[in-house]
Specification:
By secondary structure, this protein is mainly β. It is built from two helices and 17 strands.
Length: about 250
């Protein structure tokens, strides 16, 4: 397999500019209310088991933390205490509602908390495969600042990155260690790979790296961080097209 690496920021200059224009800080005063909604997606599913047809995650908590205040519990989109999602249904740009539009006190919010009660995969050959959750319950806090303006609205997308969240233990079991990318807008990288770039291989692995220090080159972790990866099979003729949907990490 031929490995092809991409520096995250090199491909996102235009997208990042659009992100800032559409979602720029509006500095709510905190004296009124604004509207918040949340969607969930998995931008590019890639799993350590080959014939998975479902990844079912049961979410029973979603909260946001306001600067200078406390946590606010948000109602899940289905209106029930628990919300089971098959994340494999929502990828390649597709999302589903996690929190329907809700009025909240305007101002700056600094953290999002996601609670997962249970998770498992469904394999066509193996049936149900449990995803072990530490201590039988999992809370994931993610630092992510956004301003909710008075009379305005903010729509947030949570990318539940399965390519990094499902981890093989080496003993035939799997753990869920959520890697969440949270932004206000999704985007994508797309292009094509010349046949000559594959060399003698029939597959190429595209690795997207987050250029955290913005120096224009890929450095070792923790200076830079692998964001996601995609395996592409060589086209029968001509260049091989690819497209990776993802969300821009809070920087």
């Amino acid at each position: 397999m031929r490995k092809i690496g991409y520096g995250f920021l090199l491909f996102l200059v235009a997208a990042s500019s659009l992100f800032l224009v559409n979602c720029g800080s509006s500095g709510g005063s905190g004296n009124g209310t604004g509207t918040l909604s949340m969607n969930v997606t998995d931008s590019k599913p890639a799993l350590p088991v080959g014939d998975i047809e479902q990844v079912l995650i049961t979410i029973d908590e979603i909260q946001v933390h306001k600067s200078g205040g406390g946590w606010t519990q948000l109602e899940l989109a289905n209106g029930d205490p628990e919300y089971q999602l098959d994340l494999l249904q929502y990828h390649d740009g597709d999302t589903t509602a996690l929190v329907l539009p809700i009025d909240l006190s305007s101002g700056r919010y600094t953290q999002i908390r996601l609670g997962v009660k249970e998770a498992h995969m469904v394999s066509t050959s193996l049936g149900n495969i449990p995803l072990e959750i530490p201590s039988d319950y999992l809370k994931t806090d993610k630092n992510f600042e956004f301003d909710l303006p008075t009379g305005g609205s903010v729509a947030i997308t949570i990318d539940f990155d399965l390519s990094q969240s499902v981890v093989a233990t080496g003993s035939g079991t799997y753990q869920l260690k959520p890697v969440l990318h949270i932004v206000k807008a999704p985007t994508s990288i797309e292009g094509s790979i010349l046949a000559t770039s594959f060399g003698a291989f029939t597959e190429a692995e595209i690795v997207v790296t987050w250029d955290k220090d913005n120096d224009g080159q890929v450095d070792s972790y923790p200076v830079d961080e692998e964001y996601t990866r995609l395996v592409v099979t060589k086209a029968n003729s001509g260049p091989t097209p690819f497209k990776i949907y993802f969300v821009v990490p809070n920087q």
